[in-house]
């Protein structure tokens, strides 16, 4: 399967989706105004993300994934942010409870994931709620 940009998540054919814990929609741009919800497909990244999800054993809350150019600019993302250039995810770990003792999924599973993929998985703590 090839990498590539889709103008909206629904443009990706469901029969080609083989990552059970995620959907194109939750990984698409969520600006709601600048684009149609564009989605960047990267099967290698999805394989790694799915592996992290299975290893953790509970749902991952994705705060941010693909960002269109304008959305990335509005949220202050770097022009060459992987959220903008391809696909990256910010994982909200605020509700992890005792599991938050672990630094974050990125550090926990770095050794098993290709460098280019771990560099695109970020964890977010929202201090004080
Ligand atoms: Zn957008």
TrEMBL record:
Q: What SUPFAM superfamilies does UniProt report for this protein, alphabetically?
A: Hedgehog/DD-peptidase
Q: Where is the Peptidase M15A C-terminal domain?
A: 20-97
| Source species, domain of life | Bacteria
By what name is this protein known? Peptidase M15A C-terminal domain-containing protein
Q: Give the source species.
A: Asticcacaulis benevestitus DSM 16100 = ATCC BAA-896
Q: Which Pfam families match?
A: Peptidase_M15_3 (PF08291)
